[in-house]
Amino acid sequence: MSDSRLPDYLLRYYRWAYVAPAALRFWDHEGLVDLILFHQYRRLRDLARTALRQGPAGDLLQIACVYGSLSACLVDDLAPTARLHVVDVVPEQLRHLAAKLPAHASVLHRGDSAHLALADASFARILIFFLLHEQPAPVRLATLREALRILCHGGRLVIVDFHRPAPWHPLRPLQWLIFRLFEPFASELWTAELIPLLQQLHPDLRIEQELICAGLYQRLIIDKP
Ligand SMILES: C[S@@+](CC[C@H](N)C(=O)[O-])C[C@H]1O[C@@H](n2cnc3c(N)ncnc32)[C@H](O)[C@@H]1O
């Protein structure tokens, strides 16, 4: 698969993290991703799992691969006949993930979150875990639009990502520096809430926001009536 099919922002800003094979081998260690999230990886992963377990049953769609044990844990939580579908735009990410998941319980799709080749209303549960902060605003909006299109009525979308921390937060300067150096779009989640974007796309959503670690992270539970 040629690089030309990868989004510009991914090639320009995140090649070192997701595209080069050596990057995958280096970064896919739970201790490392846990360190990057200031030791909150397992807590955030489990908050996502809880929200999904409390949602409707059936297959689950994870939009974008995530390093560490998240996807394997999601498979563990599935009912015996359900499957975890994961979509990612980088083929190497999917190959790498395939080796970590049981084949009978997982389906991997190559695709761009902004234009997914999945049918309308085809999933009752969707997870987006730390993808949106990496995307430029128009791509972020398109990703949300696609997730809401694919989500069926009565379905649940769970988003876990960064949020603006409290002004006194001791990690705020360090997180800001990391964004400045490595994550050029992430601070947009500090200046704009995701909730109005979701409401603009679908005014009838029921949205519950939980702030974690004094606002450094957020979990959104979005139920589509
Ligand atoms: C979920 S995000 C960040 C997750 C987190 N930093 C971690 O620990 O892995 C990383 C994944 O998003 C994928 N990705 C980025 N942009 C994408 C897009 N437009 N469509 C689908 N996948 C995308 C990357 O290929 C990568 O596998």
Annotate the secondary structure layout.
Elements: H1 8-13, H2 15-19, H3 21-27, H4 30-36, H5 41-53, E1 60-63, H6 70-77, E2 84-88, H7 91-98, E3 106-110, E4 123-129, H8 137-150, E5 151-162, H9 172-182, H10 188-191, H11 194-201, E6 206-212, E7 217-223
Parallel strand pairs: 1-2, 1-4, 2-3, 4-5
Antiparallel strand pairs: 5-7, 6-7
Helix pairs in contact: 5-6
The protein binds S-adenosylmethionine (SAM).
Describe the structure.
The protein has 225 residues and is an alpha/beta fold. It has a single domain (3-111, 120-223), classed as Vaccinia Virus protein VP39 (Rossmann fold, 3-Layer(aba) Sandwich), CATH 3.40.50.150. It is built from eleven helices and seven strands. It has a seven-stranded mixed β-sheet with strand order 3-2-1-4-5-7-6. The N and C termini lie far apart (39 Å). The model has no long low-confidence stretch (mean pLDDT 96). Bound molecules: S-adenosylmethionine. S-adenosylmethionine is lined by residues 7, 10, 18, 33, 64-68, 88-90, 93, 112-114, 129-131, 134.
